[in-house]
Write a structure and sequence with these properties.
This protein has about 300 residues and is an alpha/beta fold. The chain is about 40% helix and about 20% strand. One of its GO terms (cellular component) is protein-DNA complex.
Length: about 300
């Protein structure tokens, strides 16, 4: 067996391991050559070079074909992993190249449209095109984790696993009640009136942790509401206008007939974060995705909090 190659020697380990796998699985140099689209001498020379580089014999050449040695059997699973990972790496690069600078932003039913638009606008300042995906919070987290989405803008708190969290952004929220229900306009939390109404709210599945936090906040101020579901944030106000429910709405909710909007204390603020995958934090040309989105979200939240109270 030849000695291990010195530091100055360069070998294409991925290609040589692929040759090793082909011979080990085909048990014949000629069949391995056909599988790899090359010649038998090339396969043989490649295996000799790999064995020389590693300093171990991987295959015994017999009249009946190639037989994997004990050392070869030990290294075979590692060779498969190396070749598979290289193939996946190449596929991911091809997918990115095919996408160009197109990025996907996820937003749940509870993410205000103004925030989604801010995230998209920030991304468009640096990338060619942006798409928007909607879904429940936990589903969007999974899609960021598996690479389907580049970033998601979700309520906080929101379990995010190993995803990288952006800055927390806060939006004031208002209490929406049926017009004429609240007698004392100075009351910050009209408990007596609210206890007579249901709470119109988006489904808990949209963001379980944030949903539970809202219920806890209402419980702390002495309200234990019955809940009625609305498909999205935009659907809660019509239920309030019907006279049987109240709602906690974001600062962008418009005044509509039959609904009165009252300010809420800061502890009721709506909180949001951008979530990105730890290995996909930058665009292809190096722009930090989280920073881009955070700047857009901060701009919108700042504009809302700086607006003069009518």
């Amino acid at each position: 067996m030849s000695s291990r190659s010195g530091p100055s020697s360069r070998v294409d380990l991925t290609r040589l391991c692929a040759l090793f796998l082909a011979v080990a699985e085909e048990r014949h140099f000629g069949a391995a050559a056909d599988r790899m689209g090359t010649t038998q001498p090339t396969v043989s020379q490649g295996l000799q070079r790999l064995e020389g580089h590693l300093g171990v014999r991987l295959l015994d050449r017999t009249r009946d074909g190639a037989v994997v040695t004990a050392a070869g059997r030990h290294l075979l699973p590692l060779a498969r992993t190396l070749v598979r990972d290289a193939s996946q790496f190449e596929a991911a690069a091809v997918e990115l190249a095919g996408r160009g600078l197109t990025f996907a932003v996820g937003a749940s039913a509870t993410t205000p449209a103004h925030l989604t638009a801010a995230a998209v606008t920030s991304m468009r300042s640096q990338v060619k095109a942006v798409t928007v995906a909607h879904g429940q919070g936990p589903e969007l987290v999974s899609r960021v984790e598996n690479g389907e989405l580049d970033v998601a803008v979700l309520e906080d708190p929101s379990p995010a696993g190993d995803l990288v969290r952006g800055v927390m952004h806060r939006l004031p929220r208002r209490l929406a009640v049926p017009e004429g229900v609240v007698a004392d306009q100075r009351a910050r939390i009209p408990r007596q009136e609210l206890r007579q109404l249901d709470l119109a709210v988006t489904p808990r599945a949209c963001g379980p942790a944030a949903w539970d936090l809202l219920i806890d906040l209402l419980d702390e101020v002495g309200i234990d509401p019955r809940t009625v579901e609305a498909p999205s944030s935009a659907d809660v106000l019509p239920q309030v206008a019907a006279g049987s429910a109240f709602a906690i709405v974001d600062a962008f909710s418009p005044a509509i007939d039959g609904v009165q909007l009252l300010d809420l204390p800061g502890r009721f603020d709506h909180r949001f974060r951008a979530l990105v995958h730890p290995d996909r934090q930058c665009t292809v040309d190096g722009h930090d995705i989280r920073s881009l989105v955070d700047r857009g979200l901060a701009r919108v939240c700042r504009a809302v909090t700086e607006e003069p109270t009518p």
